[in-house]
Amino acid sequence: MDIEQRFARWSGWLKIITSDITRLAIHRHVFWETSKIIRANPNIHTPSAFYSWMRNAYATDISIGIRRQLDTRKNVVSFANLLRELIKFPEVMSRDRFVTLYKGSVVERFADGDFDRFAGQGMTHIDSQKVKVDLGQLDQSWRIAERFVNEHIAHVSKQAIEELKAGITQPPTFDDLDKCQDCLEELLKKYILLFEAKNWVTVLPEFADYWQEIFTEPWIVPSHQRGLGVQVDAILK
């Protein structure tokens, strides 16, 4: 595989990775905004299996999504595998390739300075050591979130329970999961800059609709009104 073929493959990977991480960002936003709606209404501050389901479904969804980006199995498209290949073939991401992306734009003068974030001043291609740092950061953030998965989603080990009781470890929280996702999103923005010369402010896209609108209506209607209106089966699939 020559340099251009490898770059094309990586670019394809990045599109898939971007789509996956964007989906996670949307799910996180919806979860926390829904939580705000619940907290703001004291009339629904009662124990509910729905709340437990919502928390567990969110944690499972996000954890699986994050873990997928750390999957290093062969032929798996993941952020970790992309970074590992960048470490192995740094010459593909050259300064010349990057600077060309800025040609003719109003930010053309910033091209070399932006590339220095990945390469160091004057280097002709990205620095593998810098990419290794990013990969290590991603792996470390996942190790924290992994405890959340193991202790909240998967089976809890007897040792983990004893360590929690003894105060040796602290119970993992949703904040741990958020920090891992924050790391993933920051690295995504960084490598979108490297590949596409696009400076993303946020991974979360603008919503095409007012998704909270459904909460402005009662969810349970009188029995004589049920079945009226638009069929929602297709919407919920």
How would you briefly describe this protein structure?
This protein has 237 residues and is mainly alpha-helical.
Q: How would you characterize the overall build of this protein?
A:
The mean pLDDT is 87. With 237 residues, the protein is mainly α. It contains 9 helices and no strands. It has one domain (3-197). Helix content is 61%, strand content 0%. The protein is elongated and about 70 Å long. It has helices spanning 3-39, 49-69, 79-88, 95-100, 111-119, 128-153, 158-166, 174-196, 233-236. The longest helix is centred in the N-terminal third of the chain and has 37 residues, at 3-39.
Distance between the termini: 41 Å
Rg over CA atoms, rounded to whole Å, is 22 Å
What share of the residues lie within helices?
55-70%
Sheet with the most strands, sense and barrel status: none
Question: What share of the residues does DSSP label as strand, in percent?
Answer: under 5%
State the shape.
elongated
